[in-house]
Description:
The protein is an alpha/beta fold. The chain contains 12 helices and 9 strands.
Amino acid sequence: xxxxxxxxxxxxxxxxxxxxxxxxxxxxxxxxxxxxxxxxxxxxxxxxxxxxxxxxxxxxxxxxxxxxxxxxxxxxxxxxxxxxxxxxxxxxxxxxxxxxxxxxxxxxxxxxxxxxxxxxxxxxxxxxxxxxxxxxxxxxxxxxxxxxxxxxxxxxxxxxxxxxxxxxxxxxxxxxxxxxxxxxxxxxxxxxxxxxxxxxxxxxxxxxxxxxxxxxxxxxxxxxxxxxxxxxxxxxxxxxxxxxxxxxxxxxxxxxxxxxxxxxxxxxxx
Length: 270
């Protein structure tokens, strides 16, 4: 079975055709449990997410904030394994038909085996992988296997990325480009929003791929602000926090579905 990169591209193109940004939700596998995590993915798609990133929990998630670190810790204490991540992708895809990517650091894939990982992800119906810490210049073997199995390779760019570096990264990637910036610190959001807008502009100058922004977006107003200049709005911590704050699993699922609905309205208001 080939992976679902075409489904991912179609979802992003569909949002563009509706003159809106796509809503991309992030949730860790195995959180709060493996079954609960699968239900959470179904809930965000039911609420209006176009694409879902399933996180592969890591003991040292250097690029994730404290909320996602807490969720990863819960998942790891629950014994989550790569097989559970693949099951999450498979069952969520089969239930929703939405493009599902895996977001993971490189070390777990390296240990598991690139061919095994890409083959299993494609077989599960996955659309690709987001690899925040894999240097582009060391990615050729990964990309060869991902291409063979019809999987997108999404690389992350940051405001610190120089234009020449952006050209190298976007030429190697597929699916979309993940533009990472931070908007969550009180008092700096306006200027950081401008920084993100500049990053999107510079990235677009190097590629035809959609540019999607992960910015600490947590509500519909912020989603609408980012949707003005980005092809996709990526939301993670806000979904995870709804589950962490919920008194029970059913309430958590209702909360993430509701948040997805609010954000889906937000990305349509640009």
